[in-house]
Amino acid sequence: MTQTWAPIPASVQRARQASLVFYFGLIGLFTGNSIVNVMGTMPASVAIFLWLVAVLPLSIFLPGLRRNSTLRTYAWLCFLILMYFLHAVTIAFTTGTLFYGMVYSALCVALFCSLVVYIRLAKKHLGMSLLR
Fold this sequence. Notes:
Layout: H1 10-39, H2 44-59, H3 62-67, H4 72-92, H5 98-126
Helix pairs in contact: 1-2, 1-5, 4-5
């Protein structure tokens, strides 16, 4: 018996793509900051350690984002991004790091909003659930 797959609505695809773009943008921001720190006065081992501390919690969600099988990954990533947002705001109010903090907080807000939009649209159009 053959199965016919209903096409995924464009709005759902765009929301998922936006989530992935902002997710990888945040990882890219952390990578760029580490490179700038190494070019400055920070030792490479410290910069790599700080990069790992920033990127490892995000990388836990990468397999779930790639599979796209459950919305729980996206929901838990929303919770984690709120902690990153708190850190971004404190960075923005630190002397000399206003630009980095503003970009960091803007990426966190954009990622959080795109994740919430994707969860809502996937529940509505694809019939996905937050439960198993």
